[in-house]
Amino acid sequence: MKYKANIQIMPQAALLDPQGKAVTQGLQQMGYTSIEQVRVGKNITMEVESDTEAGATAIVDESCKKLLANLIMETYSFSLTLI
Amino acid sequence: MKYKANIQIMPQAALLDPQGKAVTQGLQQMGYTSIEQVRVGKNITMEVESDTEAGATAIVDESCKKLLANLIMETYSFSLTLI
Fold first, then answer.
1. ipTM of the predicted structure?
2. Nearest CA of chain A to the CA of B73: how many Å?
3. Is B80's Cβ below 8 Å from some Cβ in A?
4. Short-list A68, A54, A21, CA closest to B19
5. Terminus of chain A with fewer CB atoms < 10 Å: N or C?
6. Is A70 on the interface with B (CB under 8 A)?
7. CB spacing of A27 vs B62 below 8 angstroms
8. CATH: 3.30.930.10, 3.30.1280.10, 3.60.130.10, 3.40.50.720. Which one for A2-78?
9. Contact, A33 vs B17, CB < 8 A?
10. Which helix (H) or strand (E) holds B43?
11. What is the pLDDT of residues A13-63, one digit of tens each?
12. Candidates 3.30.465.60, 3.30.1280.10, 1.10.510.10, 3.40.50.1820; correct CATH number of B2-82?
């Protein structure tokens, strides 16, 4: 079976996020003063072939830990849907 | 009232995504041969102050169109939650 994984990787809450800060300032200078606390991370989608949902979860989790996310600076979460 | 917006910005389906292709190949070389069709986009969170959910939706939608997403190459979607 094939699953679609939707992965969100965000900078850890405790860390500064210079890109998010730049976007916040840019938006405020454009007049969007009601926007604050912008944080910028990555959104990754992929298709995973696996017999079980647990198997697909394990593959996505491992790929996040080993390649996609830098756990020192980032946190990740993901959801799976059968396609 | 304050809303938290969760915005996903992805490369358009019709376009090549070189970063996603590189990640696909990287994962396959690491032995994750069941993963394919990786696409890499941005995940942006922000806090928006607005009296109504419709108002917050309008602000987020405008900021995506004017600054965050490049509509020629990307599509965006977002959800709002009251915080």
1. 0.91
2. 16
3. no
4. A68
5. C
6. no
7. no
8. 3.30.1280.10
9. no
10. strand B35-49
11. 999 999 999 999 999 999 999 999 999 999 999 999 999 999 999 999 999
12. 3.30.1280.10
